[in-house]
Amino acid sequence: MSEITLVIDGVECRASKGETILQVARKNNIYIPTLCWMEGLTPIGSCRMCVVEVAGNAKLLTACTTPAENNMQVSTKTEKLEKYRRQILELLFAGRNHFCMFCSQTGDCELQRLAIEHGMDNVRYPFLYETFHNDASDPHMQIDHNRCILCLRCIRVCAEKVGAHTLDLEKRGWGTNITADLGRQLGESPSCISCGACAQVCPTGTITLRDFVYRGRRHDCDDQVESICPLCSLGCRIKAYVRTGSIARVEGLSPDSPDGGQLCHMGRWWLPKSTERTRLSVPMIRDGSSFREASWDEALDLIASKMSPALKREKAGALISELSTDEELTVMSSFFRDTLNMEKVDGYYGNMLRGFVRGFKPFADQGVRPFTSAHHILESDAIVLIEANPQEETPVAASYIRVSAIIERAKLINISTEKNPFDCFTDADIRTTKKGMKTLLSALRKAVEEGEENAPENVKEAARILREAKKPVVIIGSKIAEEDSLLVTESVNLAVASKAFFDDGLGIVPMLRASNSLGALNTITGESDWLAESELDFLYVLSTGMVDEDARSMEAMNRSRFVVVHTPFMIHPLVNMADILLPAPAWFERSGHYCTLEGERRRMNLVTPPKGNLKGLSVIMKELAGKLGYELQSASAAPCENVYEAKAAPETARTVFLKEVR
Amino acid sequence: MIMAKPKIASVWLEACAGCHMSFLDIDERIVDLLGKVELTATPITDIKEFPEVEVGVIEGALGNEEELHLAKELRGRCKILIAWGDCAVFGGINCMRNFMPAEQVLKEGYVNTASTVNPDGVLPKVDIPALLPHAIPVDRAVKVDVYVPGCPPDADTIYYVFSEILEGRIPSVPTDIMRYD
Fold first, then answer.
1. Burial A128-155 (b: 16+ CB within 10 A, else e)
2. Which residues in chain A have their CB less than 8 angstroms from residue B96's CB?
3. Long-range contacts of B40-46 (CB under 8 A, 24+ apart)
4. CB-CB neighbours of A573 under 10 Å
5. Does the CB of B59 have a partner CB in chain A at under 8 Å?
6. SS3 label, residue A3
7. H-helix or E-strand spanning residue A168
8. What's the confidence (pLDDT) of residue A532?
9. What distance lies between CA A112 and its chain's CA centroid?
10. What are the residue ranges in chain A where pLDDT is below 70?
């Protein structure tokens, strides 16, 4: 890109050709007010707040859309511009209901901030007092069109980052409105995925989140803490707003990152809502149908007395959440594996993870990293879904798929036994049965390798797409990993045959579900599925209380004679299973690392200090080991590290024969 | 020669009195201020007739004939008119009724409201001043010299505006202390 030089407010600025005046000004710390513009979204220049004067041009130009040119002389702060900007603000205030005194967003509002900044102490234009409707049809979000300034940020984030394109405009002129799905109420929209991105970017009080409007505006909050969401394997970055020691709201971060600062419904609502749950703050021992409070000493003594005989009879087990941090998994692994030599240790998603590990093994043995960062879906030109439902498994990856397929025109191939999750824009939709899956995947791979001419009819189109694709990516659903690891291997074979190679590994995104699945592999994931048939005397359960326990785990707890549940919240039916409840710190009271599918080890930060009589996991395990007559050993396996480290370039991968695998 | 203290008159129209409360929040500075100015007709002194004054202050929007009349009367008797608060400056919360016709406003208030018992649907006529078609900011009816937005404006802002006027300047509220809520 060629270098250019221009002068903004007397400052000589260097820039690359193609950059806008606004981008150059920001880089040089020259402030230009903006309203509709937002980092990461396509600039549209609709609000006109960023108008600047350019020497030799009689018109005022919008800095956010005008490309900087060599030798341009730009003025951003003239009297004329100030006058126009204030006029724009007054017109916006006169247009709809912008009376701050009864708006929930006052203080957080960008329109208000700009008006004050421009000294708008009155409005010279007649107020229109037009009535627009207030769309309260959605259970989570509310759109009060009376507060709308038509900046179109919501439309752009919904289309460009979430890929849902639920929102768009209806009508013309002063009557123009944001609408969902060509004229529906938001609550009736089938395309809305309730991610709340529109509310996050809304500069005024138009789109608000019911749950958080009155828990504290951003400017009321005492603290903002950056952390990550522990609810799926992407580990999206979040910003938690803290007010008087509790979390008022959670927002996504950095709109210029690949995820565009979006969160899914889980991060947006589950995280802050979880703070409303009843906390478990002291150890509790079962007393008939209820519990009584106990000291840590008493609780651990009782646990040791039940655990000791169970260990001798090899009837002790541990079920540990894969939503735990690397550090917690290390402690668990050192206690149960290295200190007690227990075999019956596993996570909630053990079967799925074993499926992936076994399926990936032949390729890991070749030194190839068998997957890539999830956001690489955005760079792909052909996406293959194999029994995957990303909207359920890792919702932000579903956004990547929609954006890639709809905006970037990537081809989409769906292979599934059930409903196609992206029905409206799939280029090749292949349905099969559970039995037929392996044959189908093999046939498709063969057709990709040898040409689609002689291939079965149902795979022809998919094979053609994959043969033409330059950067395909294969998304493997968690369901097939649970069913048969050979299906995972064959899916990887398909990726290798399609030359799905990215810088960091094979073009594969496994839907790993739990947030720290990669961290769990080395540490707590068991060798086999003992949970399903176990008749245990003792079962220790570590739950984050954020995801409901599955039926299989609940049944295992039910069958066990003595169950210790270590969890932050009094959530049913989990606590019903417990003989002893130990309080654990909640997600906002912990810090540690997660190995995410975004290809990064991300840090979770402490948002608020723990309340109640909590103890750290390592302290508890050390004490318990002592009571059992052991000394806590250091962990032999570190989480995450060396899990699928790339020793060879993905291009060197070769397909494997399924017969050789077992 | 001792100059006579400048006189101030203020009136509370369609608003909640919060701006006058905020004025009283200037606390002990009021002693100092009263050494320099004379409060005449105000809700605080409870004097109703406006004399000729240097500074007139209006809190509240104009929503009915009486308020319109009082605003015009005060404007006629003061040299500098200040609009205090969001209601006087923008119309404020009173504008919520501007989204329906005035007749419907009366019906909503006197008949339709769930807590109202008015089986005959009697609407007030001569006994209260007639509603204007819209509740309007003060400057839609009379000229305003100083705008002090805020709901209410901070006591410091109110004090700042008086201090500036006493210094012989017509102030604008600086952006760092301006607020709309």
1. ebeebeebeebebbbbbbbbbbbbbbbb
2. 99, 102
3. B40/B7, B40/B8, B40/B9, B41/B9, B41/B10, B41/B11, B42/B8, B42/B9, B42/B10, B42/B11, B43/B10, B43/B11, B43/B12, B43/B17, B44/B10, B44/B20
4. 11
5. no
6. strand
7. strand A167-170
8. 84
9. 31
10. 1, 641-642, 660-662
B19 touches chain A (CB under 8 A): no
SS3 A535: coil
Under 8 Å CB-to-CB from A576, ≥6 apart: which residues?
none
Q: Which residues of B touch A116 (CB under 8 A)?
A: 175, 178-180
Q: Coil, helix or strand for A633?
A: coil
DSSP state of A267: I
Chain A nearest CA to B134, separation (Å): 9
Cβ A638 vs Cβ A333: under 8 Å: no
Mean pLDDT for chain B overall: 94
How far apart are the C-alpha atoms of B104 and A498, rounded to whole Å? 69
Q: What is the pLDDT of residue A641?
A: 67
CA neighbours closer than 13 Å in the CB half-sphere of residue A390:
26
Model pLDDT for residues B4-60, shown as the tens digit of each residue: 899 999 999 999 999 999 999 999 999 999 999 999 999 999 999 999 999 999 999
CB contact under 8 A, A122 and B92: no
**What's the confidence (pLDDT) of residue A661?**
66
- Closest chain B residue to the Cα of A96, Cα to Cα: B99
**Given the structure tokens 């809502």, which residue do they identify?**
A273
Q: Where are the alpha helices (DSSP H) in A210-295?
A: 210-213, 265, 271-274
The string of pLDDT tens digits covering residues A250-263 is 999 877 778 889 99
Closest CA–CA distance from residue B4 to any residue of chain A (Å): 31
Distance CA B77, CA B54 (A): 8
Q: What is the pLDDT of residues B53-107, one digit of tens each?
A: 999 999 999 999 999 999 999 999 999 999 999 999 999 999 999 989 999 999 9
Which chain B residues in 93-112 lie under 8 Å from chain A, judged by CB atoms?
Answer: 93, 95-96, 98-100
Size of interface A-B (CB pairs under 8 A): 67
A617-627 and A296-312 are packed helices; what angle lies between their axes, rounded to 10 degrees?
60
Residue B134 has its nearest CB partner, among A101, A112, A129, at A129
Closest CA relative to residue A316, chosen from A346, A350, A286, A349? A346
Q: If pLDDT is split at 50, 70 and 90, which confidence band does B2 have? A: low
Check: CB of residue B60 under 8 Å from CB of residue B83: no
Q: What percentage of chain B carries pLDDT values higher than 90?
A: 90
Decide if A119 and B144 are in contact by the 8 Å CB cutoff.
no
For residue A99, give the nearest of B86, B172, B178 by CB distance.
Answer: B86
Chain A residues with CB-CB distance to B102 below 8 A: none
Eight-state DSSP code of residue A424: G
Q: Where are the alpha helices (DSSP H) in A323-349?
A: 326-332
